[in-house]
Amino acid sequence: MGSPSAANRGSEGVGRRDLIKRSAALGLISVPTVGFLSACASSGGGGQSKDKAGKKTAKNPLGVNETAQMEFVLFDGGFGKEYAEDAVKIYEKDFPKAKVKFSATQKIQSTLQPRFNQGTPPDLIDNSGAEQMDMGVLVGKNQLADLTPLLDAPSYDDPNKKVRDTLRPGIVEMGQFDGNPVWIMYYAYTVYGVWYSQKALDSLDAEYPQTWDQMIAVCEKAKKKGMAGWTYAGKYPYYLPFSLYPMIGKVGGVEVLNAIDNLEPNAWKHPAVKACFEAYYELYKKGYILKGTPGLDHIQSQTAWAQGKALFIPNGSWVENESANVIPSDFNLAVSAPTGIDKNDKMPFGTIWASGGEPFVVPAKAANAQGGMEQLRIMLSEASSKNFTTKVKSLTAYNGGTDGITLTPGLTSGVAALKLAGSNVVNPRLQDWYVQLQKEKIGVAGLGEMMAGRLTPAEAVKKIQGFADEAAKDTTIKHYKHP
Predict the structure, then answer these.
(1) Are 371 and 437 spatial neighbours (Cβ–Cβ below 8 Å)?
(2) Per-residue model confidence as pLDDT tens digits over 76-119
(3) Strand, helix or coil for residue 269
(4) For residue range 412-454, what is the model confidence (pLDDT) as tens digits?
(5) CA distance linking residue 155 with residue 382, whole number of Å
(6) Residues sharing a CB contact under 8 Å with residue 28, sequence separation 6 or more, in sequence order
(7) CA dist 43 → 12, 68, 123, 362, 480 (Å)
């Protein structure tokens, strides 16, 4: 998955005044196994010795040991690995006596679980993908290093400006689970929503629908022309919330999403949830979902959509890069905030989910934690940010980095969507607070079953509320709440 990142991505604070200031992600986080949950709770092996810190200087503000090895493990997903390899080259240039061990894998959990158990984790990890390690568990079990030293260090470009002062609003907060420590640096900045071909929409002589009646009318037009209204990653139905959650926030207000994140009793029984579930179920009932969608993975559904078999797909902004080889040159990729129900919605059209994605972490037991943080400091420079945006068609946590770059259609549309949203940006936290609940239970067993026609909306609400209640009562997991 792209960055579910994905995805994206993963999902933040939907409850602060200016929600664009609460970016939280991720993206494509997936379900950790029970083995990992228990494994992270303990650190079995003897561990590894810490490298001796180096001398702090203006050029080395974090005090990196200039001869110590730095190991960096990247998730090899929709963003590829070239951007990270380029940043590694800068680290090697800055510390020519240091050896950098860089690797990329899609098997983050299975590759790194044994090393966490043994106390020998790498120094920097891009904890993303279908095998993402559960962030709430990592934080709750003290497995991660506090990134505050990185944030308080001088930025790579300007020694008079701290790293934290160069970041997009909300990035720091989204890396905080409890209190002041910052455990995660979300590197990408993901726009979630409903993605489509403007060319296909124009061919239907239609505009993007703002109300659900308009959505049904557009889907009916598409159906008459042999095109499905929607498809989605049926095997990973936790992609559906990328448009469904902000729709719930639009209809009922951010307080509904906050209550869901907080695992409050009956939060899923709110009328806004019921209305949005019934709206999505209508897509299934009226035959507007691409046939066979429940059996498609994210790549297959994105390919079918790019081929014009379906008009709309819920996704994150990594989709432009992840599907670049199948999206036609004249596709005119666009993204929109989710369609609402009607004029009585609590929030205006344009309300969207945007947040940090691609979570980078430095393990608490890393031998060279300073080196891992220094690699992130390099990546948060203007040059590295521009390189990322140019190569993978996505924004970064660095607040800028687009000057002089010709933006792609999807990126241009994403920037326009953020401008339209203004402060009406929501950021659900379930995706990074309770990964297993969000993906395996709400996503697969709840929404996936409903959209396949095996549960009614009422049954799905009841089932999902039950899952949330179980999580709320589970004393083996750490619980988080919006302030």
Answers:
(1) no
(2) 988 899 999 999 999 999 999 999 999 999 999 999 989 998 99
(3) helix
(4) 999 899 899 988 989 898 988 898 999 999 999 999 999 999 9
(5) 10
(6) 1, 2, 3, 4, 5, 6, 7, 8, 9, 10, 77, 128, 129, 130, 132, 316
(7) 29, 23, 16, 16, 23
